[in-house]
Amino acid sequence: MAAPEHPGGAGHAGAPAQHESGALAVGPAEHVSDPPAHVDAELVAQLVEFGATRSSEYDADHVVPAEHVHDDLGTTAHHDRHREQRTGNHVISIRPGRATAPAQAPAPRRAPLPTHHDEPVLDLVVPVFNEEKDLEPNVRRLHTHLRDTFPYPFRITIADNASTDGTARIAAQLALDIAEVTSLRLPVKGRGRALRAAWSGSRAPVLAYLDVDLSTGLAALLPLVAPLISGHSDLAIGTRLASGARVVRGPKREVISRCYNTLLHWTLAVGFSDAQCGFKAVRREAAERLLPLVRDEEWFFDTELLVLAERAGLRIHEVPVDWVDDPDSSVDILATALADLRGIARMRRTLAATGPRARRPRTTA
């Protein structure tokens, strides 16, 4: 699934390039492979082996103080580790591979990213469909926040999935105006499809996305990606249902969200708390293993990705977020809920055929 280098600041001028899959991009073209029609048992086995390899040297019974865990993230990460201790979550160290090895823990298998980068470290995708009203002001606000607070090079990718209004024109103009913005246009609708296309075509080591309405407070963005940059975790998700989250939304959406996540716990025995928050990140090597297995192309894409990651034993970091409901959201709640139920039923059948999952500790900031 690897793709050619996709620079963050150059190549915006000129005509859109045609993807082999039919997606239009402002900037260099990338090949986007289609998902498999069914889950390949061999790919599932490879994914579980990948998770086992990543977790084989972790010992959940061995806990070290937060100050003994090394990363390159400075005071922000140090503060988050102490919050983990106060909330009772464990920072897991890595034991040597053999009993005769010295007691000092070796470096993590997930190597921290170098502190100096020329290419984007973070590729932050903003999937959009008919968002001509909010797109420009919110992307400019997001860019300003990243420019002022994010210590690594970054890229913002606007992934337009078949908008019929002026969204594509505005996205293309933003890509020309701002060096760190690129735009990708797909001819077929689907948020999951847009994320798959953008993530598959990126070479950034950390891939993330957030909703264009910026319902999630941007202050949570650095805590979201910090454990991926440091090598602590494979995926990170924002959660509105954990202690420390502050949420403003109507009772209808609150009930639906809680019922959905409760249903996931009952039917798929998941350990993560909030599958639907539009605020997630993944290390690229994990995405390369997971994306070929994800079948859904719409709203269930997030849930399926997380379930497969957890089943493979990958580390999922949770960050409580501040979240304010967008009253103008165009999401069809009933249709989305029905599609999610069908996705859960399909995942139950899929997971029943793959055997028991590899359990790993879940961490919460």
UniProtKB/TrEMBL annotation:
Signal peptide: none
Pathway participation: Protein modification; protein glycosylation
Sequence ranges of Low complexity compositional bias: 95-114
Annotated Pfam families: Glycos_transf_2
Chief place of localization: endoplasmic reticulum
UniProt domain Glycosyltransferase 2-like: residue ranges: 124-290
Membrane-related topology note: Single-pass membrane protein
Protein name: dolichyl-phosphate beta-glucosyltransferase
SUPFAM superfamilies: Nucleotide-diphospho-sugar transferases
Protein location: Endoplasmic reticulum membrane
Coiled-coil ranges from the UniProt annotation: none
